[in-house]
Design brief:
The chain has helices spanning 10-17, 89-93, 190-195, 198-202, and strands spanning 4-6, 28-29, 34-41, 44-52, 76-78, 97-102, 104-109, 116-122, 128-138, 145-155, 180-182, 213-217. It is mainly β. A hairpin with a 6-residue loop joins strand 9 (128-138) and strand 10 (145-155).
Amino acid sequence: MCVFYDVPGREQLALHFGAVPEGEWRDKMSPLYRGPFLRAKGAGRALVVGQWGMVPPNSPTHIPTGQDGKRLSTVNARREGMARSWTYGGPWRKGQRCIIAAQSYVEPYWGTGRHIAWQFSRADGAPWGLAGLWSEWTDPATGEVLPSYTMVTQNCDDHPLLKLMHRPDPKRPPHLQDKRTVVPLEKGDWDTWLHATAAEAEALIQVPGIELFVHGPVDNTHQILLPVS
């Protein structure tokens, strides 16, 4: 799962995503901070700011909480189960799909047998548009409406690079590790993800080719934030 990414600068947001949204956001994102994402607005698009970590139905606070009252991690949604999920099923069925603006993202590399923070950028220098889902939560105390979002993830056990991310499970064979990765969307597919049918959108969930990436260890200037408590 991805829990750290960099937001594009304002110039990049305007150039690639069509706007600089209102509100404040973190340049270096981690769970429960606010970041920009693109969602449908009528037949077009709108870039808005919301919490990374979808707030489930009836959660008493903006901290994602399950039906049993326990805190949940909702920054990533598994594509295999999101349609049936209590948290993600409603947004998926309603077509509340979004595109998350990311300049780069970070995963834990385990190719040497230890955790190394590994950064992924696009080889063409453009920002990523990562597939996600969005929802809205109303604060019962203040009436504030808070948009929130999650990244869709997919299996990447067969990918020559991405399968090296995340700690391997020694109890599972290599082809059944269920390693996860994000879902990059090419700009020409953005409107399909935002506006088309669920079947057409799901067909865009594909593991990216290795040629799409520039990647390597995170340098010392990349300050990774701890999750909000």
